[in-house]
Amino acid sequence: MSIRFDPADAHWRVAPLPGFTSDQKDWLTRGGSLTAHLRTLGAVAVRVTREAVTVPWADEDRALDIAPRAPVWVREVVLSVDGTPFVAAHSVAPVAASAGVWQAIRRLRTRPLAELLYSDSSVARSSLVSRRLTARHPLFRLAAREIDRCNEGNPHTLVARRSVFERHGAPLMVTECMLPALWARLAARSAGARVAQQQRHIPREHGRPLEHTAARSHQGGAHAAAGVARSAVREAASGVAIHPDSETER
């Protein structure tokens, strides 16, 4: 389904920047529900930080095809995984659309926006675009507050993505800033997977468990003892001393 709204500009680009990590490029371009992707990492919770009528950011009015100071409805949330903030999200729609075509966003409360966007066949989505955010961008400042709450340091830049959803001609733009905790979780998971793979490739004797090896050693010792006993019997019978290893005459 085609869409007439385009979030791309000189800063927001369809192709992720070359300096992004492989995890960042992956998550910045993943289609479908971000909430669903986060659920693969743990239990997801939505915390609403702001809902209000305001004016659009400087990089939003063109993408929404509205006047620079036209009123918009804004919803800002934090998506946490297992209690740790992973994403700060900012959704914006023209006020008229938020009271009409997109009025359901005003009743979401702590439910994820994905429940509206991916259950309605009349909703179309633009391409995903991404960029690096600095402290000059308002979304960076929103995300920085969550980072401060978790004592995760003070990053100089963050990465974010956005896209426009269109329903019956009305736009709703969603911008999602990924927080450092997300990249840390993905890096830890990748490191754990590498360790597990290395452990699977540790050579074992004929691929058998260690207890089997120990059992064979015990059996080998028993066979050797039996050989010595047989030699002693022959020695006693013949009167000739037999070496327990070579079984030759001394």
From TrEMBL:
GO biological process: pyruvate biosynthetic process; ubiquinone biosynthetic process
GO terms for cellular component: cytosol
Keyword Cytoplasm among UniProt keywords: yes
Pathway membership: Cofactor biosynthesis; ubiquinone biosynthesis
Catalytic activity: chorismate = 4-hydroxybenzoate + pyruvate
GO molecular function (one): chorismate lyase activity
First-listed, main subcellular location of the protein, grouped into a coarse class: cytoplasm
Bias-annotated ranges (Basic and acidic residues): 202-214
Disordered: region residues: 195-230
InterPro entries in the cross-refs: Chorismate--pyruvate_lyase, Chorismate_lyase_/UTRA_dom_sf
Keywords in alphabetical order: Cytoplasm, Lyase, Pyruvate, Ubiquinone biosynthesis
Location within or outside the cell: Cytoplasm
Catalytic activity, EC: 4.1.3.40
Similarity annotation: Belongs to the UbiC family.
Function text: Removes the pyruvyl group from chorismate, with concomitant aromatization of the ring, to provide 4-hydroxybenzoate (4HB) for the ubiquinone pathway.
Protein name: Probable chorismate pyruvate-lyase
Protein source organism: Paraburkholderia rhizosphaerae
Lineage: Bacteria, Pseudomonadati, Pseudomonadota, Betaproteobacteria, Burkholderiales
Gene name per UniProt: ubiC
